[in-house]
Amino acid sequence: MNQTETHPSYIALDHWGDYLEENTDGRWTLEIYPNETLGAQAEALQLVSDGSVELAIVSGPQLENLNKDFIALNLPTTFDNIDHQMKVLADDEVVGELFNSLRETNNIVVLGGFTQGNRSVYTTFGPVETPDDLNGMKLRVQESELNLAMAEALGASATPMAYGELYSGLQSGVVDAAENNEVSYAVKSL
User: Fold this and answer.
1) pTM above 0.85?
2) Please, are residues 41 and 56 in contact by the beta-carbon 8 Å criterion?
3) Residues 132, 115: contact at Cβ < 8 Å?
4) Is the dihedral of CA 58, 64, 67, 71 positive or negative?
5) What is the pLDDT of residues 66-83, one digit of tens each?
6) What is the 3-state secondary structure (H, E, C) of the chain?
7) Where does the pLDDT of residue 187 fall: very low under 50, low under 70, confident under 90, or very high at 90 and above?
C-alpha cells in the first residue's frame, strides 16, 4: 500500500489481519507493507496480477487503466455522498460483474471498496477558489486518462505522479499543486 501506518486504510487492514488470524486459529495472516515498500500502486497491482502478492489496496484510477468501465466509479458526481458511494460499492448487483471483469485478463478480482473522502486540491501557492487559480499550474494527478482530462479542463498542466513522489515533487517545484483526498494529505503531513 502507498500509505503510512497512521492512514485509515492501513489501520483497517491491520485490524482485518488481527480478525483473520484470530478467527482462523492462525491459518490466515496478513503482512502489510506500507509506504510503497513494494512499489507504487501500479507496481503493487502488477504484483497481484502475477501472483507475487495476494492483496493490494489501489485507487480506482489504477483499475481504469486495466478496464475503462471502472471510470464510471471515478467520475465527479457519480455519487451523491460517501454513504451512497459505499452502498454502491457494496452492492454486488451493481458492481459484481465489473469487480470480476479483471479475472480473465489480469488475474485480479476486486474484493470491495474503501472511501477516503472527497477529493480536493492543495497547493504551494495558496487557495484554489476557481479554475482560473489553476491556470498554467502543474497539477499532480493520479495516472489515468480521466484525471489527465480533468486537470486540463481546469486549465492546469496535468502531471501524473505516484503518491510516494508527491511531497518531494511539491518541495522541488516539479508540481505546484496536487489533487487528492483530505485524509491522505492530513496523515502524510503529520
Assistant:
1) no
2) yes
3) no
4) positive
5) 999 999 999 888 999 989
6) CCCCCCCHHHHHHHHHHHHHHHHCCCCCCCCCCCCCCCCCHHHHHHHHHCCCCCCCCCCHHHHHCCCHHHHHHCCCCCCCCHHHHHHHHCCHHHHHHHHHCCHHHHCCCCCCCCCCCCEEEEECCCCCCCHHHHCCCEEEECCCHHHHHHHHHCCCEEEECCHHHHHHHHHHCCCCEEEEEHHHHHHHHC
7) low
